[in-house]
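Subgroup meeting minutes
Present: P.N., E.W., G.H.
Scribe: E.W.

1. P.N. recapped why we're keeping a running log of single-chain structure predictions: easier to compare across weeks, and new members can see raw inputs and outputs side by side.
2. G.H. added today's entry (169 aa).
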Amino acid sequence: MNGGIVVYIGMGSNLDRPADQLRAALQALHGLPDSTVLGQSSVYRSAPMGPSDQPDYLNAAAMLSTGLSAHDLLHALQAIERDQGRVRRRHWGERTLDLDILLYGEQQIDDAELTVPHVGIAEREFVLYPLAELAPDLQVPGLGPVRDLQAAVDGKGLVRVPFDWKEER
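Output recorded in log:
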């Protein structure tokens, strides 16, 4: 391990073979400089949060230790999204890949480029269920333990799907 700060990344895809997109994203996270992937959650299927005329999403979370600053990590994640064909067409619209910094250690960041903890983290079951698998006792700065946040959402919109992170098409 690199001795860096522990961060949690939300991962989502609903275009261009979403399962393959998540696998490629995890592989790319393994390649981040000064970073080590410590684990990944199960994968969950959920209805889109935005416009309903798009496919369901596959969502997961990854835990990393990184020496990258929050903003350098954000830029690296955006580069991975672009490399995997992400095009921002509409707010909360379909995408090949979405990588979000959910938590960056215990830091709270709110600037023009980045908000951590991630906006809406406490209401999004597709974020809380994967996050709770990785770290149920984790404290979300300003909001409380992940376990309590997860208990406050019903999870009925999620389906845990069988998934092999190493499988290839």
